[in-house]
Design goal:
It is a single chain. The protein has 16 helices and 17 strands. The strands form three sheets. Strands 8, 10, 11, 12, 13, 14, 15, 16 and 17 form a nine-stranded mixed sheet that branches. It is elongated.
Amino acid sequence: MEIRADEVSRIIREQIREFGSGPSADETGQIVTVGDGIAYVYGLSGAMAGELLDFGHGVVGIAMNLEEDMVGAAIMGDDVKLKEGDEVKRMKRIASVPVGEAMLGRVVDALGRPIDGGPPVDSPTMRNLEGKAPGVVQRRPVCEPIFTGIKAIDALTPIGRGQRELVIGDRQTGKTALAVDAIINQKGAGVLCIYVAIGQKVSTVARVVDKLRAHGAMEYTAVVVAGASEPAALQYLAPFAGVAIGEHFMESRRHALVVYDDLSKHAVAYRELALLLRRPPGRDAYPGDIFYLHSRLLERAARLSDELGGGSLTAIPIVETQAGDISAYIPTNVISITDGQIYLDSDLFYSGQRPAINAGLSVSRVGGAAQTRAMKRVAGTLRLDLAQYREMKSFAQFGAELDESTRRQIGRGERLTELLKQKQYRPMRISEQVIQIYCGVTGHLDGIRLDQVAQFADGLLRHVEESDDELVKKMESSGDLDVLSSQRLEAHIEEFKKQFVPVAQEAAP
């Protein structure tokens, strides 16, 4: 058989032309090992950190460890169908989530896929889960309040737009309840909300969504869920999905509030991934970058400068403690990242103080900058009165003889503590809070029986609103309580005290 030179040259030209047109090691790889939600893939030399990978069978993963010959990936789905030798393809897309108005009212997973039974989210805009936080020059000081509707918070530990305020306490002390009340209170305030549920029972999240829907809050709220039964990779990504949604609103000149419930379970999910990916363990077996994980998440909350539109993203992370130990590893990490903490005490909770906020351990590093002038005027002495009450109360436990001044301080502290009690799903307007707190700090409750304080405070609100609606509207619009308004409020309180008749309450069975 004769070898023709033109035939040889044609074959060589075709091979050169087709070289690189098929799948290459840059684009595809093969599973080397798989198990426990982690896969090591040989190849994929072109993969990027955080890139989504297609494992087939409808399973998606995310590239986390980029090694010389292999890629360590976390699988976001069921890995039972995956086996060694299976082909893995790059999706050429960094993990991202749909953002925009279409997310409001929806319940989605960490990748923006709906889990509320509705259609896919119809949004033309996608945003990477990981992003760079605004720099110092791009920010403006926190100077505008974001009201939670909870007296004990708005008066003692106020939260400003762009702030990061931690809610910390043992399990079942009302941490989620505070966050839900804060979301409900944003109705009509122009603040869009994102609630991120990490590692919780789906039934618990469903109850929260039902409450938000019942109060009309789902109209301006997006819910991101990575339940306890979900893979650790989705629990790890969920808060980043929430902050990405909030950042879109912030950069479009609006205000957003994001709740992370909770970062303790987020840290546990990341620890699980890190250990399975053979990353070196550190303290409490957490990887060395656990602090960086939460700091790069929470630093993305900001109040943008006027040149960038003046939008804001406020973060309320939640951390669960064990037996009140706020000096543990994850709590101290998050405390040092945030701008203050609201500490919920289990002893207060079980003694009937709801919300169970410990005023001594709770602090806001923004302080009066995030309060209206009216609230600053009336709440100025509230923290001092409560601190003196706690000190005198502990002193009185020794059975010592108390003088009249000490008894008066204890009596006022007891009434102020009773005044700060508030029912769940009952957020209050700022004018209502100011009226009640003014009544307490000026001593008008000192002559009221302790079990009648709540009745008196609620009745006073109705009396002022019915007899002087103009005063209430003025306080709401101006945010101030000037001398004339104080005199009018004093007159209303004195008038109501004369006509106050407590209603007998039925004894509990």
